[in-house]
Amino acid sequence: MIRRVVDGALRGSAPVVFGGPGMGKTTLVEAAAARLRESGADVVVHEHADDDDQPREAPGVVCLRSGGIALHRALVRARGERELDGRRVQRVPLVLLQRRDLRAWAAAAGYLFAESELERAFRGNGGHPFVFAAWLEACRYTRVPELLEARVVEACAPVFARIDRELAHPELAPLWTWLEQARSSGVDDMQRAIGATKPALDRLAIAGPVSRTLGAKAEISVACELYLLHRTR
Q1: Which of 53, 175, 222, 228 has its CA 20 to 30 A from that of 34?
Q2: Average of per-residue pLDDT across 52-80
């Protein structure tokens, strides 16, 4: 992902990294900026808050931007304006991590987990980076599953509250309510059932606790069981 951002900037694009709360936008753009500076590029980073929908200008330099759903909506609305700072916009949406990513992260952090532990962790966090980081931190104190998960939910409360606010938006609320009940659905089925548009489904996936599979059989599903546990409290 870092290489994708760096290559796009070097080719003259204006990368914009989109992600929901806790998805690692800052980590990604800062790492990409460091690589660009190593190559001699003059780089600035503009981080946009969750509700910031106004991309700031950065003439004369390479600018890496990160933002949330509000910024995504703004750029979708401005279809006729496909450039930032005279550069073509390159959209880089962050996605949930896969099982192999979590396994490698745990190993790099010095943890050797049984497959059953990693599988339970994956079901709980759904590949959400912040939630998995909290899970690794909680493992320092307990390995009892119920106690571990309770500690993670408590640590993630601020991020989960931000996700709550994103999903309460009038565009996303009916989509989330429907998917929360179904847990998993074909994208075409969801479009037929409630008229979900592709941009709206993109933003639902960006919000955080939703996994989307593309290809011949496109599916969308609720991915983070600990977020659902938070919603019941």
Answers
A1: 53
A2: 90
The DSSP element (H or E) to which 90 belongs, if any, is strand 87-93
**CA pair distance 93, 83, nearest whole angstrom:** 17
**Residues in Cβ contact with 209 at an 8 Å cutoff, skipping those fewer than 6 apart:** 126, 128, 163, 222, 223, 224, 227, 228
pLDDT tens-digit series, residues 201-211: 989 999 989 99
pLDDT digits (tens, 9 = 90+) for 183-198: 999 988 999 999 998 8
Determine the Cα–Cα distance for residues 32 and 161; give it in Å rounded to an integer.
Answer: 28
Q: Give the integer Cα–Cα distance in Å for 66 and 55.
A: 9
Separation between Cα atoms, residue 68 and residue 21, nearest integer Å: 8
Topology, domain 2-93: Rossmann fold (3.40.50)
Q: What is the pLDDT of residue 77?
A: 84
Instruction: Quote the pLDDT of residue 25.
Output: 95
Q: Does domain 166-225 match CATH 2.60.120?
A: no
Identify any residues that bridge with 92 across adjacent strands, giving them in sequence order.
17
Give the global pTM.
Answer: 0.90
Q: With b meaning 16 or more CB within 10 Å and e meaning fewer, what string describes 41-59?
A: eebebbebebeebebeebe
**Residue 204, both tokens:** 């639902």
Dihedral angle, C-alpha 16, 19, 21, 26, nearest 10 °:
-40
Domain boundaries of the chain, sorted by first residue: 2-93, 99-159, 166-225
State the Cα–Cα distance between residues 156 and 131, nearest whole angstrom.
Answer: 6
